[in-house]
């Protein structure tokens, strides 16, 4: 059981998680609702089937479910965030293209070749990015261009994502066929598909099923506690898959074609493509409108991370139902959504621009 303290392969409950939960939630400004200090107080070593295990008091089961919920939340909002993932993909592409053209001092090995030479591997620090960006070697031009895009925040654009279990082996091929069918100029190399698996740490299994508990009356007897004995509000599934579609080209025509191909593909697969990283606006009907005005819109911007970065909010009569914003003063304007008051809006999964019915140019 001592090994379970740091890296618990049985159920994933260990101090390694508790450490990065506390640290990352603090640094990200996310509230950590899991109380690890209380959990430690009620941890106890009990013999189970001839083997000693770390068990917990039965009343701590909801706290442990909260631990796995915190893990899932951190993966959704930070570790597997679309921006972080696409930056990682772009850096990986740059390193792959520079593999044989960036040589380490000494034995002059390529990037991938240093895996078998620890002395050379130790010299592969973050400085490799600056070496590529500052180089003038034509062989590094592709890598240099990709890394400059990352530096300038010109990332590959997410045209949508889906939540559905899909066969990954044929996914890109099927999507590219849809691009070809609509006559798009986009090719396979212009598309990036990022498959993200979210779970409670044990794929589709409930990790609490592998935890044993003890009661106040019998502290030396380990028992199982089933999910339906705890609450009806706990999740039915413990894993889901998200598939994000990115386009490397940033011109409007290419992005529109990529979105259209995704819509066609989703219609064939009977699933829905959701927009990504597009902020939302809530519209309130105005009361006590001035006599010289037909209608007043009171707009409240949802308090989300995306919206906090935006500026220059404006509307005009030629585009009813749409609000225009900029991320930076020099950025191009983008259209964002208007929802009627009371509409259900999930700020973590923001929808595409859909002008609400009834909002015309006159109003």
Write the layout of secondary structure elements.
Layout: H1 2-6, H2 15-28, H3 36-41, E1 43-48, E2 51-57, H4 61-79, H5 82-97, H6 118-121, H7 127-134, H8 141-151, E3 157-163, H9 171-181, E4 191-199, E5 213-214, E6 239-247, H10 252-269, E7 280-285, E8 297-301, H11 305-308, E9 311-314, E10 323-326, E11 334-340
Parallel strand pairs: 2-5, 7-11
Antiparallel strand pairs: 1-2, 3-6, 4-6, 7-8, 9-10, 10-11
Helix pairs in contact: 2-4, 5-8, 7-8, 9-10
GO cellular component, one term: nucleus
GO biological process, one term: dGTP catabolic process
Protein name: SAM domain and HD domain-containing protein 1
Short structural description:
The chain contains eleven helices and eleven strands.
Molecular structure report:
One of its GO terms (cellular component) is nucleus. It comes from Magallana gigas (Pacific oyster). This is SAM domain and HD domain-containing protein 1. One of its GO terms (molecular function) is dGTPase activity. The chain is built from 11 helices and 11 strands. The protein has helices spanning 2-6, 15-28, 36-41, 61-79, 82-97, 118-121, 127-134, 141-151, 171-181, 252-269, 305-308; strands at residues 43-48, 51-57, 157-163, 191-199, 213-214, 239-247, 280-285, 297-301, 311-314, 323-326, 334-340. A 5-stranded mixed β-sheet has the order 8-7-11-10-9, with no helix packed on it. A 3-stranded mixed β-sheet has the order 1-2-5. A hairpin with a 7-residue loop joins strand 10 and strand 11. Residues 276-296 and 347-356 have low confidence and may be disordered.
